Amino acid sequence: MATAVPYQSEMDGAVRHLVTNYNPSGNRIGWLMMASILVEAWDLYSIAFVLVFIRDQYHPDPLLLGLAAAGTQGGALIGALVGGWLSDKIGRRIMFLATMILFIILAVAQAFATSVWLLVIIRVFLGVPLGSDISNGYTYIMESMPKGEREVMGNRWQFMFAVGEVLTLAVIAVFIVANLEHALIWRVTLGLGAVPAAIILLMRHDLPETAVWLIRNGRFREAKQVAMQLYSDPLQMLPDRDIEIAKPSASAFLSDLRRDPIRWRATLYGYIACFCQGSEFSTFAFYLPVLFLMVGVASVLGTDLVTMALYIVAAISGWIGPQITPRIGQRGIAIAGFGIVLVSLLVAAWALHTNNVYILPFAAAAMLWGHYWDASNCMTIPTVVAKPEYRGTASGFAYMFVKLPSFLSIFLFPSLFAAVGQATATLLVAIFPLIGLLSAIFILPEIYGYEHD
Q1: In whole angstroms, what is the distance from residue 446 CA to residue 449 CA?
Q2: Which positions ≥6 away from 254 have C-beta within 8 Å?
Q3: How distant, in Å, are the alpha carbons of 82, 160, 185, 198, 267 from that of 403?
Q4: 366 — phi, psi (to 5°)?
Q5: pTM (predicted TM-score)
Q6: What are 363-411's pLDDT values in tens digits?
Q7: Which domains does the chain possess?
Q8: Cα 96-100-101 angle, rounded to 5 deg
């Protein structure tokens, strides 16, 4: 039988008071957390745009080339699991400081890799802080903003991904126009990821621990100080002394989910959506630059510019999606997104099969528009419905379902291309948005504005 926690009602009241009433400082914190996604977008997906240069320099086989691209995704899988759990155990602040420092060091290191195998090893280690930072950032957003606002901010992560991808493509285009050697372009591009990471570290180094985490860990005096610092609120419902509270466990998180059918169904949908959107993007969309070259759509520079135009479309979609979520709900944006992706991939497969390759960029644009909607809330939903004491673990578990298919897809998709051809491979990818669409219709309850008991 569970031991009663002293001041449980006061703790619940303080947490509810915080997430219901405050936004100005929370909005700033939310954007600071979103900014770190620029770092992940730069590193996870910049390699997709320079993969052809690495291939031309080292001539790796398709599996090794796929592993170089997917290495960070594999590391992020580990980082999501461990980082989310540690965020609940030791705190949000120490985790985001550690992850940014590690990323700066490893981002620079990959620029000096002397072989594809060394690049793979560095990128696997690099993925660990990236996966940890995303799961930790979502806990900050959900604990620093009121309901309604936090869902919109959480859904903006895809907008930040698109901005990061556009910036990466713009830099690469400048390098190509400047006639830099291709071997230098990929090294500088990968190493430049350390620059935004350093800026974000400077901007976030004085950010306090979240008051919600401090409350749930019995550190009431620090929680009062943070609430005064951010909101000028003394949290008078809490006592002026600390208490001992047992640390949450992953097993307790999983068993707690099943007690609330809404929380369970929302979380289950989140896991399915994370897997499906990660699979659809990391196959077709991730390899668009390579695919365009393979089917003769454009030159290297032309492919870079076409891809940049596509991600500008994606950025617009990534901004509009969260803005309309309060009107159509999390369920509505998910159904619309997966539906658009499904139709777009079927059109793309037809274009490849019939050799109408110039339709491909338009199908890709529609696919990215839909993807940046269906992917927008797959991390928000499991994190927002989780109890505060399990929120880091919940976010980490959800991100694991993004990174696992991303790693497998990026690693294996070049071989699938070679084995069955571009058209058949694209048609197979359409299975994922179909599963996501059915899950949004039949599993996902509407949880916009959700607050746990």
Answers
A1: 9
A2: none
A3: 13, 17, 26, 24, 17
A4: -65, -40
A5: 0.84
A6: 989 999 999 999 999 999 999 998 888 888 899 999 999 988 888 877 7
A7: 8-241+248-442 (1.20.1250.20)
A8: 120
